[in-house]
Structure formats: C-alpha cells, structure tokens
Amino acid sequence: MILTGLIAQRFAGKPLRQPDYSMRDVPRTSRDLSNSVIYHITDREHFNDSMAEYVLLCNEVMRRKALQQKTKSSKPLSLEYMADRLDVDDPCFGFMVRTKTVPSDYPIDQMEYFHDGMLQGFITVTTFTNWQKSFRWDSTHNSAFAYDEPDLAAKMVSNDRKWDKDGCLAASLQNTVKCGDAWNEGIVWPKIAEISLLGALGCGKALLSLVIEKLESMQANEKHNYDYVVLQATDNSIPFYESMGFVRVGCITEQLLKANGDKDDDEDDDEEGNEKSEIVSSPVFTVTAKKHGETPAQYAKKYGVDVWDIIFLSHYIYPDMTPNSSLMKGTVLYIPDVSKFDGCTSINKDGPLLGGAVQWHSSEDNETPKEIATKFKVACKDLLAANRVRIADLKAHSKLMKG
Fold first, then answer.
1. How far is residue 317's CA from residue 311's CA, in Å, rounded to a whole number?
2. In 304-391, which residue ranges form alpha helices assigned H by DSSP?
3. Between the CA of residue 107 and those of 8, 114, 243, what are the distances in Å?
4. Residue 350's domain spans which residues?
5. pTM for the complete prediction?
6. Residue 115 maps to which CATH number?
7. Residue 403 lies in a domain
8. By the 8 A CB rule, do 129 and 320 touch?
C-alpha cells in the first residue's frame, strides 16, 4: 500500500502584491460582522492578487492561537500550497471579508494603523478532483487512518472525534459519479464540492456557513451538481469543523498493477514518448436512443438516475447536451450503473439502493461468503453484489483470508 501526495511548487507568475498594512493591526471580526464587508469572488485573478495577504493572514492566525493557547500550533498554509490550488482549481470561487469601520474595542493607541479594506478572512471552493486512478473513499480500509499522529489516533479510539465508523459516508461519496483524464484535467467528482482554502480572524464559521448556503442554492449544470462538501483539516482545526457538522472519512490510493503483473510507475509519457491520456469513470452502461426526439430526462426517469449525471458522463461526446435536448436515433448515452454501487448499500429486488445501514464483518481464515450470509441471515447473492466491486472475483464458496 502506497499513499502518495503532491509536492506543490509555484510556477513563475507576476510578483505578489504586498499589503500596505500589518496583519498584527487587523482586528478580529465582530460576531455579526457589522464592522466588515463580505465580497463574493468569482474571478480567479482577484484571488491571485490577494495571495500575499492570504499567507500573512494564515501566519497571523497561527501566531494569535499560539499566544492564546500557549502551545505549538499547526503550520499555516504555505504560499506554494495556495498558489498550487489557485492555479489548478476549476472552478474557483468563494468569499473574502475585509474591514469597513473601526470596531468599538479597537485599541486607541493603534487607531492610526487602522484603515478600511484590511483582510480578515477568505475561503475558496472548487469541485473535488483527483489525479490518482486508484483513489477511493473508504473509511473501513486498514490504511485509511493508519498514519495518524499518536494523539489523534488515541482520540479516534476513544471516540472523541467524529468519524465515519460504519463506512456509510465514505461509500456514499464513492458511489457518486466521476469522470476525467487522470493525466490531464484530472478525475472530476461533480457531486462533491471541496473547501480548498480557508483563513479567518474570527469569521471562519460565518464564511463556512455562507459557502454551504451558496452551494445549497446553486443550480445543477453539466459541470457540478453538489450533494457533499469535503475538505482537508489540520489537527487544530478538527474541532472547528466538527462543530459545523463535518465528519472524518477515510480515503486511500493503491499502486496499480499492469496486465503483466508489474507495478505501474505512473510515468508521464508512454513508450513512444507521447503524452498519456486515459479516461477514468465510475461504473456506467450505455443505451442507444431508439427514435428521434427522445431526451436525456426521459432516460434518467426510466433508469432512476439524476439527469445531470447522464449529461456529465456524456460531456466529452456531447458538450452542449441539456436535460431536454432532442436526441437523434442512434445517440449513445452513458448511464450510471447503480447495480455496481460500492460498499454501503441496501439491496432490494430492483438492485442496490444507497443509504441503507450496513453491518461490517471481518472474516475468519478460510471463511466463505456463503457461511457469512448464513450467519447474518441474508441472501448470499446480495452479499456478493455488495462486496464484489471491492473484492474482485468474489464467489459464494471463495475462501477468505482472516480480516
């Protein structure tokens, strides 16, 4: 098992615009933000122009936390990481909070250093994207939380942290549609929004609440149809995100094997020196329009799936498709295959349905799915259907290894 990460490196760009104020003079926002202004940002360049302020703000947040708690804080977000996110994230939108008027508790002896427009907080949002073909959401995998620091590991064991104990949340994420080129634009998960950057002096909860409200109100389209929000949290920020309703989930990536059994070294070019390109997708099946005038919405209703999932999965071929597009006879559509939902599912006569409770069982040595199905009084075929995507070639009488 290999967990891989990206080493962020800033590409050459225009010089950072330094603020004309000191971050130490920036006041915390009031609870109602009455002395501040919130800006809705949709222009990537606006974020880039404020990057120096982001770095200084994050450093100041950590400095004040260290003074208040008298303990060593986590490292603040780095310039390289921020630059990498603002360069790659697509789409990229969010909010900023800046000072407007002097708060009543601002020190009198610092009054000359205050002016409007000082940055007090920022947040950026994108659509979750990854560049590892084997990436998966999985809270039940042995390696999902295996690299925790001792203090966090102890809190997980004692249930002091909110986490996806039964794996249902991770399975829900894993069962959303995804599609993309792992070597170019990345594998896009249009139902999952990601909070990519957040820094705040007293307005973190307000910014996060505002983003969630914004995501809930956004109309679905061919690029995004958000149902979930994810983020990466530092150790110090975990309690804050838990207070906002977030739950820790596991995710892993495994080194893939080539057809000949060798490890895939993930080189940038193929054997002939050409740039690689490989579309990775969630499970799908295809249907062909039988007559002129049929619409994607009709097929979505027929197969019980979201029409925007069909449009997203077909966007490489039909970039201008809408739910009510009139299809020509013979048009091929990609339909999400819910029969191959991965992990936490309920099974009925019509196939797997997401959202049912699952009881997880660790097998004994040489135990078979047939014996496990009998033990838990479930149909063996349903047990096989729920686990076959995770365990290749699973059969009723397969002898399982312990664990």
1. 10
2. 307-313, 369-376, 380-387
3. 39, 10, 31
4. 340-387
5. 0.77
6. 3.40.630
7. no
8. no
